[in-house]
Amino acid sequence: MNKQEFLKALSDRLQGIPKEDREKSLEYYSEMIDDRTEDGLTEEQAVKAMGNVDEISDKIINDTPIEKLIRKKVTPERKLSALEIVLLTIGFPIWFPIGISLIAVAFALYLVLWVLILCIYVVAFTFAVSGIASIIALFMSIWSGQILWGLFLFGCGMVLLGLAIPILIEALRVTFGCISLTGKCFKKIKSSLAKRKGGAV
Questions:
Q1: How far, rounded to the nearest angstrom, does the alpha carbon of residue 168 sit from its chain's CA centroid?
Q2: CA-based Rg of the chain, rounded to a whole angstrom?
Q3: More confident of the two residues 125 and 18
Q4: Which of 18, 127, 146, 197 could disulfide-link 164, Cβ–Cβ 3.0 to 4.6 Å?
């Protein structure tokens, strides 16, 4: 692949980002290829050293702020006809509330997920505090002469602490899993916004 083919392939994959950002990226990679050819590489070697076009385009899209991608997606590429403007205006009371509702439902579900995770932490914390309090109660029971009651409390405390530790570990695992899933979903959304209507990213 030579320089022009590389830049053409990269430009095709960046059609979903704003024009100024696309041109800036193409200029940057064009200069990088030129620098490498000046250092003695052939054009093909310089292009190969750039890496995979898909990976480069994915990185550029992920580095592009989502506001720019949304603005690019909703801004028409051509001037709307009078009929299209009328249809959009008439349909506004239908499509706008539906769009807002879908966003609100998605946000509510995401919020519920984090509330459930918080509840797991609360349960783990409650078990841990109760376990520690029960173990401390052992010494108070021995001090007051109720050794059997103290041993019972100590046993309860150990059970509660034994439950708190795996619950906390599971809560941390779920938390990191949700953070990772959030990142993947965010990248997927950005990738979908940057897709051309008829082509690849």
A1: 23
A2: 29
A3: 125
A4: 127
